[in-house]
Amino acid sequence: MIYFFILLLVLLIISLYYLYKFALVLIELQDVINESLELLDNKFKIISKILQTPVFFDSQEVRRVLKELEDIKVLVLYIANRLANSLNKKEIEKQDE
Question: CA distances (Å), 91 to each of 9, 14, 23, 96, in order?
Answer without folding.
Answer: 32, 27, 15, 9
